[in-house]
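Dear colleague,

Thank you for sharing your sequence with our group. We've completed the structure prediction you requested, and as agreed, I am returning the results in plain text so they can be pasted directly into your records. Please verify that the sequence below matches your submission; if there's any discrepancy, let me know and we will rerun it promptly.
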Amino acid sequence: MSQSPIAWREVRARLFRDLDTAGIEDAAREVRWLACHVLETDASGLLLRENLTAQELARLEQAVERRCAREPAAFITGDAGFWTLSLAVSRETLIPRADSEALIEALLQMRPDRASVRSVLDLGTGTGCLLLAALSEYQEAIGIGVDLSPDAAVLAMRNARANGLDKRCACFAGSWDTALDARFDVVLSNPPYIPRADLAGLMPEVRQYEPGRALDGGVDGLDAYRVIVSRLPDLLVPGGCAILEMGIGQIDQVSALARGQGLAERGRWQDLGGIARALVLEAPDA
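Please find the predicted structure tokens below.
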């Protein structure tokens, strides 16, 4: 006996209510996003949908159930967009965020000549988002990504291969204060910067699913910056630049730490919300 068709319009309304009740912001967008993933279509294809099969409905309901439990949508779909790239994600890494694109925007402003950057280092590379975005813009550059997690380093190289950048980069596991003995034109980093006391108040998607080691910045949120800026004079070529991501209200303190190491502040870039997110530092000329 054939199954009765399952009307997509009715399913969409019910799943919207489920997500909205669970406290998911912009539940309509989330339903569309998850449906496109499960049904392997795009927004245009979704508009043409009238019915679902029982199997499609079951998969979609499972995805929505996970989202209602506040699992990030990127972990459900397995990927996230960053800059011009599509990147695989896992629970070993932070999910790339649009706010971090401020670092790439700052880099392009500071180094407009695409031939001027030949080497890039990404400290705490995670998915490889910063490193790979930089390499996609600077076609003559090679890069290295370092992450404390071996699984993160493997994921970053997987993303490099998927985006055709693996011939120009290497990612490995190690501690960023001891792993390297080389100098680079550019150093990028999005280190842990959440003050420890604030971790419990993070939204459930972050607190329950993303790795705590990539979030915990110590008592004042500045532990990682103290290590990084102390290493930058040995990691940058003369006149090289470092661009660091930071949390709300931290930029003056990090700039002061950098000046104490002989680094000059060269600029501050805001994220999409108008928050000072990227600090540009420069090593002295030889």
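Summary note from our side: The chain has two domains: 6-69, 79-282.

Kind regards,
the structure core
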